[in-house]
Amino acid sequence: MSAPSDGVPERGPGTVGARITVNGEETPLAPAAPHTTTLDFLRERGLTGTKEGCAEGECGACSVLVARPGVDKPTDWVAVNACLVPAAALDGQEIVTSEGLATPGAAGGTPELHPVQEEMAVRGGSQCGYCTPGFVCSMAAEYYRPGRCAHAADGTEPDAEHGPNGFDLHALSGNLCRCTGYRPIRDAAFAVGAPADEDPLARRREQAPPGPVSTEYARDGATFLRRSSLAATLELLRERPDAVVVAGSTDWGVEVNIRSRRAGCVVAVDRLPELRELRTGPDAVEIGAALTLTEIERRLDGEVPLLAELFPQFASRLIRNGATLGGNLGTGSPIGDSPPVLLALEASVVLAGADGEREVPLAEYFTGYRQSVRRPGELIRAVRIPRPLSRVTAFHKIAKRRFDDISSVAVALALDIEDGVVRKARIGLGGVAATPIRALVAEAALEGRPWTADTAEAAARELRAAGTPMDDHRASAAYRSEMLGQSLLKLYAQTTEAVSS
Ligand SMILES: Cc1cc2nc3c(=O)[nH]c(=O)nc-3n(C[C@H](O)[C@H](O)[C@H](O)COP(=O)(O)OP(=O)(O)OC[C@H]3O[C@@H](n4cnc5c(N)ncnc54)[C@H](O)[C@@H]3O)c2cc1C
Ligand code: FES
Ligand code: FES
């Protein structure tokens, strides 16, 4: 067991201390296995409101609330997919399930429904009810979002995606309902008011969430480990080169559930303070690898416009509440959505190992299919985006659905245009090669040339020839190539429309 550091409480080894506060009650983790999901952990303890629909983060039937460091208040209630998060990853943490939202009735009396449950009931938002606990938890997270009522009060007009109460429908983008239809569910979401002053979960936001604890949970020959500092984690990774590193577990959880992968040793990095810093300076924006996409989205609040375009197109709110940039780069997937954007932003990856840190341009990071220059035992500590940022940017994710889908192909464009001439062009592509790539030939076809239809068309031709796209069940190679060129032409049309209007 490592020595206490950073003021983070340490836990004794073994399974005895590991516990989660569930609906206000401390619940021991044992006898759950280290790979047991939070969903199974809850259901095995009789909390069967939390449902399994898909076990791969697609349906939201398993949504629960976790108390996390807040963006505008000390604590945010964050909805996550319980089917993906190992219960051991929540050791020392506090969660609320659909059962915990209602207020228990006096001695055997009927519990008093939570306002979101009440609205779902009276507006016909539930038929078979299978999806309802998950919807209710996602809805409750948005109900308690500190900025929601401010958004409603500042005179912002409601639009198709926001209610008059400031409710952001994207909060429900990870929840599927097979039978009710979404209109009554949306009606319920748009009808909830502001939390009452005495609401216990609203009051809970004013205190800090539980800090990370150091976990050493071993059972059935497998171990789940968490250290409280980066140095201790890197030392551990040196000792355990076999360990699987997890952050939000939105990729790893699918491997465990769907592909039955098991690890002898899992090391969690998602609460490491050194991986959760966000610095915005005059020369660069540095984003901690273990910040969730939701945290980055809310904390940057549009400061990096290309990232602001990426986030709503990345999975669902439930997934973004867990998914990290470190995890997206850590998978090395050629169809991950952040690499094209980060390539266009000329980002670099800060790698931390037991012997020190090094910074690698993202353009040199990927070396082959799911391979990178990251050495065994190294962690991604942060992603660094240099300033100044290009002013003309776009991210086009081509997928079969508008939200919560995997890209067939993704294009990120960042152009500096001065006096009608393209001074600099950076284009990141995903889904057209074994790794995310820069479209260097197309960039060269733009740089130094006037930003005209002819230049855009010539560069679009080079873009169509970029990479080696494949035919698969998502799209044909020809379609993928065509979409690359089309993305640049679309950006050209948008910029010239903006100038002429
Ligand atoms: C329903 C669903 C929808 C999805 N939609 C999208 C989408 O639209 N776009 C997209 O790009 N992805 C998508 N994903 C994939 C996934 O959410 C992302 O890849 C996410 O960013 C992974 O982050 P994580 O923290 O959950 O990673 P984890 O699952 O915790 O880890 C993933 C991998 O990264 C490694 N890793 C994690 N952190 C670090 C670190 N700091 N240093 C080194 N290695 C590290 C781990 O060892 C592991 O190999 C989706 C997944 C699901 C289940
Ligand atoms: S069970 Fe479908 S998202 Fe978890
Ligand atoms: S109410 Fe039946 S799936 Fe939603």
Topology:
Blueprint: E1 19-22, E2 25-28, H1 38-44, E3 63-69, E4 75-81, E5 94-96, H2 98-101, H3 115-122, H4 132-143, H5 146-153, H6 182-191, H7 200-204, E6 215-219, E7 222-226, H8 230-239, E8 244-246, H9 252-258, E9 265-268, E10 278-280, E11 284-288, H10 293-300, H11 305-310, H12 317-320, H13 325-330, H14 338-344, E12 348-353, E13 356-361, E14 366-368, E15 371-372, E16 379-386, E17 392-398, E18 409-418, E19 421-430, E20 437-438, H15 440-446, H16 453-464, H17 477-500
Parallel strand pairs: 1-5, 7-9, 8-9
Antiparallel strand pairs: 1-2, 3-4, 3-5, 6-7, 10-11, 11-16, 12-13, 12-16, 14-15, 17-18, 18-19, 19-20
The structure holds flavin-adenine dinucleotide and FE2/S2 (inorganic) cluster (FES) (2 copies).
The site of one FE2/S2 (inorganic) cluster (FES) has 12 residues, from loops.
Structure description:
The chain has 501 residues and is α+β, with helices and mostly antiparallel strands. It contains 17 helices and 20 strands. It has helices at residues 38-44, 98-101, 115-122, 132-143, 146-153, 182-191, 200-204, 230-239, 252-258, 293-300, 305-310, 317-320, 325-330, 338-344, 440-446, 453-464, 477-500, and strands at 19-22, 25-28, 63-69, 75-81, 94-96, 215-219, 222-226, 244-246, 265-268, 278-280, 284-288, 348-353, 356-361, 366-368, 371-372, 379-386, 392-398, 409-418, 421-430, 437-438. The strands form five sheets. The protein has a five-stranded mixed sheet with strand order 2-1-5-3-4. A five-stranded antiparallel sheet has the order 10-11-16-12-13. The chain starts with 18 loop residues before the first strand and ends with a helix. The model is unreliable at 1-9 (pLDDT under 50). The structure holds flavin-adenine dinucleotide (FAD) and FE2/S2 (inorganic) cluster (FES) (2 copies).
